Amino acid sequence: MEFVKCLGHPEEFYNLLRFQMGGSRKMMQKMDQDSLSSSLKTCYKYLNQTSRSFAVVIQGLDEEMRHAICIFYLILRALDTVEDDMTISLERKVPMLHNFHSYLYDPDWCFMESKEKDRQVLMDFPTYCHYVAGLVGIGLSRLFSASELEDPIVGEDTKLSNSMGLFLQKTNIIRDYLEDQKEGREFWPQEVWSRYVKKLGDFSKPENIDIAVQCLNELITNALQHLPDVITYLSRLRNQSIFKFCAIPQVMAIATLAACYNNQQVFKGVVKIRKGQAVKLMMDVTNMPVTKTLIHQYVEEIYNRIPNSDPSSNKTKQLISTVKTQNLPNCQLVSRSHYSPIYLSFVMLLAALSWQYLSTLSQVTEDYVQKGEH
């Protein structure tokens, strides 16, 4: 199905096919499982269960950073689960959070009473995003610098590190409006949506779709303010694996915002980038010039869809203009082929079907031979 979705996007089709036929092993380095301790094996097991996307970028890190970031991520996810669970009383939650560091040394400690689906945000939007994502960015940056794989300034500049986390967190909150509503969670900031409706759930009503989109565009504009910091932060990175670890999620985020901007579907169903598009970004984001070009393409896509009647239109245009002046190349990525998209898609589909046919034929032949031996 993913191959069919990409037929109109030959570059995505090419990368999806390449990813399926071995490119994934380049993105996520194969680890020697036998060399891992039992505790590290458990960590990677939980990492893959917790987040597929972060599991890929974490396991793409150089070995000296991979284990540290894996453990760092799992600890923060555990803290986040406790902090976000509104069914835990404050009298119990606050001491648990304060003492959480001590539980890491107790192999028998566990907490099985979390009901994460009942979480709601109690703090204001910027503060919440800072604590659940900004501090993650700051912690990661300090790890990068402490490893000496990156310059000290990366860990010292907490403003830029904070922006890296905020941009990702705000994007996730914006995109997941309908999913969160269905699960009884509310993350959109009340100080924004309350200017449009009495209850956040009212945005899903057909009669409110116009003001819902206006609120959506305002929140996306709010997230875009972090892009200049993101670009500056990424431009300071020197280690290839750390750059990809940081840049891939950020480019995914701006692509997601471009898909959500001025889009009524956010309030009706799932809005996400195509798998082929995601794979293409994962494989293309290898250096700063390409990353800047991709950011430019997506902000330009947003800019071209700004309604003049939108209350946030002037601010959105201003922010995008600021991003554009940040030494971004005004150019398209060079296509790998001069053939027409239809012809190239046909050839790729034929190649994919042929590859699947040969794989099936090979398996059938192998089974036949094995049966013959018996």
TrEMBL record:
Class of this enzyme: transferase
Record keyword Transferase present: yes
InterPro entries membership: Isoprenoid_synthase_dom_sf, Squ/phyt_synthse, Squal_synth-like, Squalene/phytoene_synthase_CS, Trans_IPPS_euk-type, Trans_IPPS_HH
GO MF assignments: D-glucose transmembrane transporter activity; squalene synthase [NAD(P)H] activity
A single GO cellular-component term on record: endoplasmic reticulum membrane
Domain of life: Eukaryota
One GO term of the biological process aspect: cholesterol biosynthetic process
Cofactor names: Mg(2+)
Keywords: Transferase
Pathways involved: Terpene metabolism; lanosterol biosynthesis; lanosterol from farnesyl diphosphate: step 1/3
Protein family (similarity comment): Belongs to the phytoene/squalene synthase family.
Function of the molecule: Catalyzes the condensation of 2 farnesyl pyrophosphate (FPP) moieties to form squalene. Proceeds in two distinct steps. In the first half-reaction, two molecules of FPP react to form the stable presqualene diphosphate intermediate (PSQPP), with concomitant release of a proton and a molecule of inorganic diphosphate. In the second half-reaction, PSQPP undergoes heterolysis, isomerization, and reduction with NADPH or NADH to form squalene. It is the first committed enzyme of the sterol biosynthesis pathway.
Protein name: Squalene synthase
Lineage: Eukaryota, Metazoa, Chordata, Craniata, Vertebrata
